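User: My collaborator and I are trying to settle a disagreement about how two of our proteins should look. Neither of us wants to argue from intuition anymore, so we agreed to look at predicted structures for both before our next call. Could you fold the first one, then the second, and keep them clearly separated?

Assistant: That sounds like a sensible way to settle it. I'll keep them separate. The first protein:
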Amino acid sequence: MSPEPTFISRVATLRRSGTRKHPLAIGGSGTNFLAAICCAVALGASAQPAPPVAVSLGAYAQALQSPARIAVDTAGRAYVTDPQAGQVVVFDAFGRPIATHSGFARPLGIAVDVQGKIYLAEEGTGSVSVFSEQWNLLYKLGQGNGEFQLPNHIALDAGSAGNTVYVSDSKANTVRVYIGATLDHTIGSGGTSFGKFDFPSGVCASANNEVFVVDQGNDRVQVFGAAGNWVRAFYLGSTKVSGRSQGAFLDAAGRIFVADSFQGIVKVFNRTSGVLLTNVAAFGKLPGQLDSPAGLAIDNLNRMFVTSANTHRVELFGLDSFIHLTIEPAAVTIAAGTNLTLRALTGGAGSFTYQWLKDGNWLAGATNGTLTMPSVTLSHAGSYSVVVSGPAGTFRSSAASVVVVAPPRILSEPASVTVLRGSNGVFTVSAEGTALNYQWLFNGAGLAAATNDTLVLANVEPFQAGFYSVRISNALGSIGSASASLTVTVPPAIMDIASSGMDTNRLFHLTVNADLGFAYALDTSTNLFNWEPLLNFTNDVGLIEFIDADTTNYTNRFYRLRWIP
């Protein structure tokens, strides 16, 4: 298919007016690899789409070193590749990091299909791996490792079902097209003429089976048919050459967005005519500004995600009519008594309506853009989402999981105990709170495996005497109990009635041999069942003789010696 002559004439004139510059490397590696994730959408009906209205919505920054590519799934989760860290960081629709997957060899391009499968390119292995939603490896494209010289960017077919996969192999100057895991055909080769590439970076596929390739070294976007036939092209620079065009995506309004990492902007073109409509953002390090933007993506809430490598964050922009979700506080787990606020920010022309849901059920009266829950209790825990209707349609947000945790509180302290050597010592604490963890301490040091609300010390020995306490914790913090003492009592080793006998005066004599320093009781009985105390004493002298002058009153008289702890 040949392009219209007037279109070629126009772009050729613009091409001559620019000044060519060699692409610059980003990040100091000397490897020209950056691109972005793009999505496949339907061609807009308007011949000349309006420039987008972009609103800065903040940034995702936590856990990122040098973000390169980004993809979003149907639940609004963002997947960000970080080649310097060798990892992929996943954020939920509210911008909270929920997972980090490490151990990759400079991960670059990434895409996610509607079934949740993840396509990940690794520069270090020259491969594209396909993972399940749980990050289990399913297969690799082609021959696996070594399939690509530089797998820079991944795009899926218009349905995003993974039936057709496009991979820009930048060093090989081709775009490789796969049906499932099998190579079907390649697009382009090295060169400057139409249909050839000089370091292809971004790639996107439209619903009408057109393939858009950002031809970085030639400073243009080339468009191909589904079979790889060249259709048309337009240049990215006019009086000011772009120099380092990166990733791109197509939107439903008939526009193509291209990251210009050299100028720190996102350029927006009419994807049919190539007319520049506007620029989004500006170069800089302030919020809403870009420094080396590379990766682009758009979600179903009309939010544009831009990786800004040299500011170590992902900037968000609302385009035209958009929905943006926030949660305060940002933590997944919050304390009982905390004020919780969920917000659905909207932008663009027209009115919006809201309906909040908890665990899939409508919340009565929750029809504003903000849902506020003061002093939350455990009953507020659950999964929250919002249905928003506006000019662009009706959207249901991904869920915000809210876990309400009661902080630990001690109801009763452990009590001091005195136990006999060889018996059990038991300490108990009573506490309330959510998901409590216990750690008992002996004289301030933690006891191994002592992690229950009750501490049982079996067969205690004197060396275990001391002070015991417990530290109780959960996700909100910890609290320590008061100390309770353990006293271990050791019984006497010798305790004996050494001799006994009646004298001539009919007085009964007993000689007691017992360890010094202990208290004892001498008891009497007439039947060996009912015992009565005769006397109590402490042995300070060794052998002790006792005389029972009352024996004449009994026919039978029995004696026993007893230790008093």
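The second protein, kept apart from the first:
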Amino acid sequence: MRTPAVPGPKLPGLTWRVQKECRLWASALLLLAAAAAAVAGASVAAQAGGARVDAGERLYRTGLGANGEPIAAIVQGDVVNATVALACANCHKRSGLGTSEGRNRAPPITAAALFGELGVHGGLRPARRTPLYDDATLRRALEAGVGSDGRELGALMPRFRLGDHDAAALLAYLHTLGDGADAGVSATEVRLATIVADSAPVAEREAVTRVLERFAAIKNSGTRREVERAAASRRQLYGERHIRAFRRWRLDVWRLSGPPAGWRTQLEKYYAAGAPFAVVSGAVGDEWATVHEFCEQRALPCVMPVTSLPASAPANRYNVYYSAGVLTEANVTARELLGDPRGARQRVLLLYPDNARGRAARGALESAWRAGGGGGLVTRALAPGTAPGSQDWLALLRQARPDSVVAWLDATQLREFASVANGLERGPQRVLTAESFTDWEGLTLPAPIAARLQHVYPYRLPAPGRAQFPREESWLKSQRLDALARIPAAKALFACHATGEAMAAMADSYSREYLIETLEHMLDGSNMTTLYPLTTLGTGQRLLAKGAYVARPGTGGAAGLYTDSHWVQL
């Protein structure tokens, strides 16, 4: 029986079987070409969509449209304004989860809140009293101030003048905003890290790691079936917020070794092995700038590390510090000198250690002194752990003839300096030391120089017979950790408390941006810590304490007692 001829064009000189195979191959190639075109088209569409989302993110965060100019809007009913202050993130926050001030509330505008979209991670839709939005009704709300239920929105909500391109970009971004928990979070666990380096003092490293490990162990062991209760709460809209928020802490200790130039590689390796939700505390000595930069680039919150030299980079979104450390002490010192009756006219001798901490403090003091109109500042760097001989001290003092001396010296250097200054017929009338350089525990100096000395002290002052940091010290004592270095341990503990309280307040909205926003709100004027007499943290601020005491070290009673003190707020 003859096989039927294969339809299609005949190819001269070839058998029908070869012709059939050729046509099959041609069809396959056409299909492959069509598939490749479809993939390329999808790739182009994805790139276009990604670019649109990126443009929407810029608009949301900065208020700038595609032309680089602020989007104009009508505010308070009839005022036309065009300024970056109207950016969505300023009220609804970068997380999209909103905020409140007094009776005014900016509600959540995440994808789940607006459209009911759960995102790739799933999660819980917030309870609503009004219909969900679609793109058309949301654009109407943005431009005309009409909500999804047809009611007029409050006067504080701007009525934006959006072009089609900017409107499409903003809507595309809002469909992605808050689409699930950030890295380091599962349904039952939150991964946290702390960072220590062998360049930090052993006492600081030990205080940080032992306090964090103990805090995490207590939190995880005292669960009382919180994991199961949290899962039950997440299954319905009105589950208790603090129960929904519960996660076990998985604490990783990232240990850095060698010079700071090699830390970035080590940090990236740790991060790739298990990205944390946040970094809590830490101790790497005076080289925190490397860690700061890493956290900023990774959008990784870092909550109050133990360091006297925080990074002074202008861009700081994700690093929250206790204070500016030695920079605070230098600025308080300059403020105190300028407030002297002789003010900027006096001659000042600055003695400082030739290391990163000393050089940074010297720069801050010089800048503040010049800004106050001061002149006649003489500086002398000393190699750490060494001191000039008596004759060198004498020659320096006679040459500089200072009215005031800023003595950022260790205890041994300060004693030798004081013994020479006391022998002068006309020595300096004022000597200022600072806590980051001189430890006054048990240190006394002979008169008359002792009577002329003042110490810049950034913490709550100790009082005879009372715990200096009662909240932190009582916990450390209860856990038999009171032998640790007191201030680093107290700082590590408060970083744990602040992080834990912030995450409890976040309910089930585990967003790194929301963690930072919650800390800003929670720590503003907080009395959660007894480390500092005055703490403030507002929107965009990253320093919890912004001043220091200027006090005279006491000569009797408890060691470390200070008298005649006053607080200088920067």
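Some points you might bring to the call about the second protein. The chain has a mean pLDDT of 84. The first strand starts at residue 72 and ends at 75.
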